[in-house]
Amino acid sequence: xxxxxxxxxxxxxxxxxxxxxxxxxxxxxxxILLLGGISIFGVVWFFQHGSTYASNQVxxxxxxxxxxxxxxxxxxxxxxxxxxxxxxxxILISLVIxxxxxxxxxx
Length: 107
Hints:
By secondary structure, the protein is mostly helical. The chain has three helices and no strands. Helix 1 (2-25) crosses helix 3. The protein is elongated and about 65 Å long.
């Protein structure tokens, strides 16, 4: 239940942020909905990757300079928590909304 609440709050916050961004740059929210969702997901992925990279770099430097075992090098594994789950649901919802919104122009 806690995961669902955090995911829903994530979706609401992401929607508000993208809506405010669309107002700020003066475009329709439909123009940035899908790409904004993917971009925010990418930022989260880069932060997780950067954290693992920095940890591996520190552990390697410690081992190289002192010879002490500082934990070794870890393989990057993307963590799926409730926030990432909410981001992925937002991307899926925005994809459906975008296809319905722009698909109506094709018919």
